[in-house]
Automatic annotation (TrEMBL):
Residue stretches making up the Carbamoyl-phosphate synthase small subunit N-terminal domain: 2-122
Keyword Ligase (UniProt): yes
Cited Gene3D superfamilies: 3.40.50.880, Carbamoyl-phosphate synthase small subunit, N-terminal domain
Protein function: Small subunit of the glutamine-dependent carbamoyl phosphate synthetase (CPSase). CPSase catalyzes the formation of carbamoyl phosphate from the ammonia moiety of glutamine, carbonate, and phosphate donated by ATP, constituting the first step of 2 biosynthetic pathways, one leading to arginine and/or urea and the other to pyrimidine nucleotides. The small subunit (glutamine amidotransferase) binds and cleaves glutamine to supply the large subunit with the substrate ammonia.
Protein name: Carbamoyl phosphate synthase small chain
Designated gene of the protein: carA
Organism encoding this protein: Halopelagius fulvigenes
Active site feature: C243, H324, E326
Matching PANTHER family: CARBAMOYL-PHOSPHATE SYNTHASE SMALL CHAIN (PTHR43418:SF7), MULTIFUNCTIONAL TRYPTOPHAN BIOSYNTHESIS PROTEIN-RELATED (PTHR43418)
Keyword entries, A-Z: Amino-acid biosynthesis, Arginine biosynthesis, ATP-binding, Glutamine amidotransferase, Ligase, Nucleotide-binding, Pyrimidine biosynthesis
Top-rank taxon, per record: Archaea
């Protein structure tokens, strides 16, 4: 008798060791990141997913709040070969079920071969395989979470001022990681974080120098309000986006998105810049990708599978990335993206000066 069961959409039920009790369900995904478990577990993009760590030991350097990307744990459950007690205490405080002593190689192979799949989890004394299957039967697909933005977004606008105020960025919070805000503040920008369903009037009132669509969970097709903002302000305000933000911007500008088989989640995804030919290592966490880029040019691609990693349109002042330039976890190699975003405001100001002196 085990005290934890994981039921997979392919019909298998796997025994595990229960670390944090509870019943839950979600889309089963894996990350290959070997560090950064605090950042990953607090990344709002994992909402409604069950996160499997392929790295075997999770928790070996403790739990520190300064490494959190948001104020809570977002995956519905966590799975590892072995969790340390400190991580288990944290997940317990957060009431997030956790299981370990499981063959994560087998699990990752199943996800790679069959794709990200629904799962159900039951943990605690006396639980049965049927309890996990019951959870699985209640599991929705990611795109069925139509209002997932409301689960992760700020309820109201919040402004952070640096004192420099060189540029004012309106960040549409579809589930933004804290490091995106920090990366903009560190470069002297003021940032107003707006709810995921902010209106055209909300943005007009702020009159920002950049409209930035954040990362976030689920299917980008469900972020219709953010898409509407992009459609409304393209060409008027410089636009930027990260991860879900890239997907939303592309959809708004005539592009399409599609679900990947198992996505990219890790901290060593190679990305080639098509202009310089250089390859950088990037942090990624996504299950959807831009298929047709619409009115944008693909400027960067994933070396492994050729998917679109960077989209730009110089005339319209649009720049987006599918990966996470803000890192946390992972490499800092792409932080200059935020300089490029803020440089668009200079371009805008120069154009305004040029046209006013005509
Ligand atoms: N990190 C993100 O923004 C993820 C974007 C989207 N939810 C996806 O899975 O593709």
């Amino acid at each position: 008798m085990s005290d934890a069961y994981l039921a997979l959409e392919d019909g298998r039920v796997i025994e595990a060791r229960g670390r944090v009790p509870g019943y839950t369900r979600g889309e089963l995904v894996f990350t290959t990141a070997y560090t950064g478990y605090e950042e990953s577990l607090t990344d709002p993009s994992y909402e409604e997913q069950v996160l499997t760590f392929s790295y075997p030991l999770i928790g070996n350097y403790g739990v520190r709040t300064e490494r959190f990307e948001s104020d809570r744990v977002h995956p519905r459950a966590a799975i590892a070969r072995e969790f340390t007690d400190e991580v288990v205490e944290w997940l317990d405080e957060q009431s997030v079920p956790a299981i370990d002593h499981i063959d994560t190689r087998e699990l990752v192979t199943a996800i790679r071969e069959e794709g990200a799949m629904k799962c159900g989890i039951a943990v605690g004394d006396g639980v049965t395989p049927e309890d996990a299957q019951e959870e699985l039967s209640k599991c929705k697909g990611m795109s069925e979470h139509v209002d997932i933005g409301s689960q992760v977004s700020t309820p109201e606008a919040v402004t952070y001022r640096t004192g420099d105020g060189d540029a004012h960025v309106a960040l549409v919070d579809c589930g933004a990681k804290g490091s995106i805000v920090d990366s903009l503040l560190e470069r002297g920008a003021d940032v107003t974080v707006l709810p995921y369903d902010a209106t055209v009037e909300d943005v007009e009132e702020l009159s920002p120098d950049v409209l930035f669509i954040s990362n976030g969970p689920g299917d980008p097709a469900n972020f219709t309000q953010a898409q509407n903002l992009v459609e409304e302000f393209v060409g008027e305000i410089p636009l930027a986006g990260i991860c879900l933000g890239q997907q939303v911007v592309a959809r708004a500008l005539g592009g399409t998105t599609e679900k990947m088989d198992f996505g990219h989640r890790g901290v060593n995804q190679p990305v080639r810049d098509l202009r310089s030919g250089k390859v950088v290592m990037t942090t990624q966490n996504h299950g959807y990708t831009v298929d047709e880029p619409g009115n944008l040019n693909v400027t960067q691609v994933n070396v492994n599978d050729g998917t679109a990693e960077g989209l730009e349109n110089d005339d319209l002042n649009v720049i987006t990335r599918q990966y996470h330039p803000e890192a946390n976890p992972g490499p800092n190699d792409s932080l200059a993206f935020f300089d490029d975003v803020l440089a668009m405001t200079d371009a805008k100001k120069q154009t305004a000066v040029a046209s006013s002196s005509d």
